[in-house]
Design goal:
The complex is a heterodimer. Chain A is mainly α. Chain A has a domain at 253-327. Chain A has 13 helices and no strands. Chain A has helices spanning 4-37, 44-59, 66-73, 86-108, 117-139, 156-162, 177-199, 201-211, 213-218, 223-249, 258-269, 274-299, 305-319. The longest helix of chain B is centred in the middle third of the chain and has 20 residues, at 136-155. The radius of gyration of chain B is 19 Å and the shape is globular. The chains are: A mainly alpha, B alpha/beta.
C-alpha cells in the first residue's frame, strides 16, 4: 500500500498532464504559423474562441448578427429554430476556419510581406481584437454551453480500478472523462499533422516554406497558398482546443486568454518545434499543478497556478532562450 | 551557324533548336541604380548559354529577371513564342524554368532526398483529399516521383547521401544537391547562378562535366552565369558579356574572346 500523500501527488500530476494537453494544443497552433511565416499569432486564442462560438451558434441554430439585425430592422429574431448535428456543425466550422484563413492572408498579411516581425505581431493583435468584437457581434457575448456529446465527469472506472492502491482515505484517482477524450484527440491530431507534413505534397511544400522562402519559390511553391494552408491548420487546431475548453467550462470570452498561457509553453518548448509545443504544454500543466500541491498551497498561500508558468518561462529565458527543442540561433560574424 | 533561325546540329552532334526565350530591351532599376540597361538577347533550345561579366555587371539581376524574382521596368520577356506577362517566381517555375542560387538556397532542415523531392512538387497533382488520406493516386504519384528523383540522384552521383540532412553537407555537395533539385523538376530551361563559385579545380571539373552531361543526355537548355572565363568558354555554345549593366558582347566563345570591349572589361583599360 502506497502512502496517501504520494498517491495524491500522482493524481495531481495526472490532472496536470490533462490540462497540459490543452495548453499544448493552443501552442501547437502558434508553432504552425510561426514556422511557416515567422508571424507570432497573438490571435490564436481568439481563433479558438471564435471556432467554439461558431460551433455553438451553428449547432443551436442561432441567427448570426441577431442583435444587429434586430436593432436595424426592429425585428426580434434569435434562433432559426433548428438544431444541426454536432458532426455536421464541426465540418461547417472547419469551412469557416478555412475562409477565415483565406481572409487573414488576403486582407492582412498579403500586404505585409517582408515587414518587420514586430509589425506582423501588431497586426495579429489587431486581428485578435477585431475577431473578439466580430465574434461578439455575430454570436453575442453570453456564456454558452457546448455539448457535442463528449462524456463528462469523473471516470468511475478509473476510480474503482485504482482504489486498492491506497489506504482507507484514498478513493482512487479522479480523472475527468472529458480530459481523457481531450488527450486522445490531441494525440490523434498531432499524429495526423506530423504525417501530413512528412508524407504529402502539401506537407512537403509547407516544410519547404518554413525552411527557405526563396528556394520554395524557385521550385514553384506559392507562398500565399501555403500561408492560407497553415492558417487553416492552425484554425483546425484552435477549433479542437476551443471545443475542449468550451465543453469543460462553457464557451466564454475568457477563452481567448488561454493564449497567454501558451506563451510560457512556447518559451519552454521553442517557437519552432512541434514536439516542443507538446512537451512544453505538458511540463507547464504538470508543473503548475504539482507546484501548487507541494509548495504553493502549503507554504505560499495558494493561487500559484496563475504565475508559475511565467516564472518557469523566465528561468528558461535566462538559461536556455531557444527553449528545449528550439533551433539555437548562431550568427556567423 | 547561330545566325540561322532554323535548328541545326553542332559539331559534337547536339541539336540546337529555335529561339526558346528572348529578352527584348530589358531595363531593370533599383531606385536610381540601373542594374540592367536595355539588354536584348535570346536563348535557343538545347544550347548552353552563358552570361559572363565582372562583379556587379548585373548578371545575377538578369537571371532573376528570367526566373521572375525581379520584374523589369522596361522590356519584354518572350518565352516559347509568347510574351510573358509579369509573373511571380513560383509561376515561372511552373512553366518549366528551374534555377539554382549563387548562395545556395536549400532546405537546410530537410534530407537530400526531401530536398530533391520538392523539385517534383509541380509534377504531383493528386487532390488534397487524396493526399490527406494517402490512397490511390497520391501513393502512385509518390512512387513515380521517387523513381525520377532516384535517377537524378544517381546521375549526379549523390545517391549515397540521400538520407543526410543537407545542413551537414560540405559546400561542393550542397551545390550538387541544389542542381539535383532543379533537375528533378524536369525543366525546359535550367538557370544556374554561378554553379562553380567557391569551388576548387577538381570540383569545378566535376560540375562542368555534370552540366555538359545534363545538356547532352536530357537535351536541357541551360543558361548559366559565371565569372571564371576559362570554364565558361569550354562548356558554352554562346556567351553574353555584361559590364555595368550593359551588354558589351554576344556570340560564340571564339567571337567573344577576340572582342576588344570584352578584353577591356576583363583586363581593365587605361583611361587617358
Amino acid at each position: 500500500m502506497l502512502p496517501d500523500q504520494f498517491l495524491f501527488a500522482v493524481e495531481v500530476m495526472l490532472n496536470g498532464l490533462m490540462a497540459g494537453v490543452l495548453y499544448a494544443l493552443v501552442a501547437l497552433g502558434f508553432v504552425l504559423i510561426f514556422k511557416a511565416s515567422g508571424i507570432f499569432n497573438y490571435a490564436q486564442g481568439v481563433m479558438a474562441l471564435f471556432g467554439a462560438l461558431t460551433l455553438v451558434g451553428i449547432m443551436d441554430g442561432q441567427v448570426p448578427f441577431a442583435h444587429l439585425i434586430n436593432a436595424i430592422f426592429g425585428t426580434d429574431v434569435h434562433h432559426f429554430g433548428w438544431h444541426v448535428p454536432a458532426f455536421l456543425s464541426i465540418l461547417l466550422v472547419m469551412v469557416v476556419m478555412v475562409g477565415l484563413a483565406w481572409c487573414v492572408q488576403h486582407f492582412i498579411f498579403r500586404h505585409l510581406v517582408g515587414q518587420e516581425p514586430i509589425i506582423l505581431f501588431m497586426a495579429t493583435i489587431g486581428l485578435a481584437y477585431f475577431m473578439e468584437g466580430f465574434g461578439d457581434l455575430m454570436w453575442n457575448s453570453e456564456i454558452k454551453k457546448l455539448d457535442i456529446g463528449i462524456p463528462q465527469g469523473g471516470s468511475m472506472w478509473i476510480e474503482e480500478a485504482t482504489t486498492f492502491l491506497g489506504g482507507s482515505n484514498f478513493y482512487g484517482f479522479f480523472i475527468d472523462k472529458l480530459e481523457i477524450v481531450a488527450s486522445v484527440v490531441a494525440v490523434v491530431l498531432v499524429i495526423i499533422l506530423v504525417a501530413f507534413a512528412q508524407y504529402t505534397k502539401q506537407g512537403r511544400a509547407m516544410r519547404a516554406v518554413a525552411d527557405d522562402h526563396q528556394a520554395a519559390l524557385s521550385v514553384g511553391i506559392s507562398l500565399s497558398f501555403i500561408w492560407v494552408l497553415v492558417w487553416s491548420l492552425a484554425g483546425f487546431v484552435a477549433l479542437v482546443a476551443g471545443i475542449m475548453w468550451g465543453a469543460k467550462s462553457g464557451v466564454q470570452f475568457s477563452l481567448s486568454l488561454i493564449a497567454l498561457k501558451a506563451l510560457p509553453v512556447l518559451m519552454l518548448g521553442g517557437f519552432t518545434s512541434i514536439p516542443g509545443a507538446i512537451v512544453g504544454g505538458l511540463i507547464v500543466g504538470v508543473g503548475e499543478k504539482l507546484f501548487e500541491f507541494l509548495i504553493g498551497a502549503p507554504f505560499l498561500g495558494g493561487a500559484t497556478e496563475n504565475w508559475f508558468a511565467y516564472m518557469l518561462a523566465l528561468l528558461f529565458l535566462v538559461f536556455r532562450p531557444q527553449g528545449l527543442f528550439g533551433e539555437k540561433i548562431i550568427e556567423r560574424v | 551557324m547561330f545566325d540561322q533561325p532554323e535548328s541545326f546540329v553542332t559539331a559534337d552532334g547536339r541539336t540546337i533548336g529555335g529561339v526558346m526565350m528572348e529578352m527584348k530591351n530589358i531595363t531593370l532599376r533599383f531606385g536610381g541604380v540601373v542594374a540592367i540597361k536595355d539588354i536584348s538577347f535570346d536563348i535557343r533550345e538545347g544550347e548552353i548559354r552563358a552570361i559572363i561579366g565582372p562583379n556587379g555587371a548585373g548578371k545575377s539581376s538578369m537571371l532573376n529577371v528570367i526566373s521572375g524574382f525581379y520584374n523589369p521596368q522596361d522590356g519584354e520577356v518572350w518565352y516559347k513564342g509568347e510574351r510573358r506577362p509579369s509573373m511571380k517566381p513560383f509561376e515561372v517555375a511552373r512553366q518549366g524554368i528551374a534555377r539554382t542560387f549563387q548562395n545556395i538556397a536549400l532546405f537546410e532542415g530537410m534530407s537530400v532526398l526531401d530536398n530533391v523531392m520538392t523539385g517534383r512538387l509541380n509534377h504531383m497533382n493528386a487532390g488534397i483529399m487524396s493526399q490527406a488520406f494517402w490512397y490511390g493516386k497520391a501513393q502512385r504519384e509518390e512512387t513515380e516521383n521517387r523513381e525520377v528523383v532516384e535517377r537524378v540522384l544517381d546521375f549526379l552521383e549523390i545517391q549515397h547521401i540521400r538520407k543526410t540532412p543537407v545542413s551537414r553537407l560540405p559546400y561542393g555537395l550542397k551545390k550538387r544537391v541544389e542542381l539535383a533539385r532543379a533537375l528533378a523538376a524536369d525543366p525546359k530551361l535550367l538557370l544556374l547562378d554561378e554553379p562553380m563559385a567557391g569551388m576548387n579545380v577538381e570540383e569545378k571539373e566535376d560540375m562542368s562535366r555534370f552540366i555538359l552531361d545534363v545538356n547532352d543526355e536530357f537535351g536541357t537548355t541551360i543558361a548559366l552565369i559565371e565569372h571564371d572565363m576559362s570554364v565558361v568558354m569550354d562548356i558554352s555554345d554562346r556567351v553574353v558579356v555584361m559590364d555595368y549593366g550593359k551588354k558589351i558582347g554576344d556570340g560564340t566563345p571564339t567571337d567573344v574572346r577576340s572582342n576588344q570591349a570584352v578584353i577591356d572589361a576583363y583586363l581593365g583599360v587605361a583611361h587617358d
